[in-house]
Description:
The chain is mainly beta. The protein is 4% helix and 53% strand. It has a single domain (8-109), classed as Sandwich (Immunoglobulin-like), CATH 2.60.40. The chain is built from one helix and four strands. It starts with 7 loop residues before the first helix and ends with a strand.
Amino acid sequence: MGDRGIFGALAMGAALFLALGNPLGDAAADELVPPDAVERTQPIEVAYRFEHPATGHGFLDIEWSDVDGRLVERRRIPLDLADAAEVAFPLDATRAVTMKNRLTAQLAPL
């Protein structure tokens, strides 16, 4: 049975901060897409979906924090995209301590 509570904020509308002046294209309508179900004992796959296919170089900066403001994970994912619709990345659900979590993602130039 999936446990959506562990990533309540993530699964029910992740917070998303987008860089203005995105070197990979217009980020105005990009979105962070959590999985439909979360199992606390398994990694979850999150996707950063571009409004339009993206080509270019840069980074996707990910920050995961809990409802108490504690940083769970910060990661910088290098990007080398050629007409990509999205970038997917895993998160270790076993690291969640609280029921509500926040995931932010920002595109950064190379």
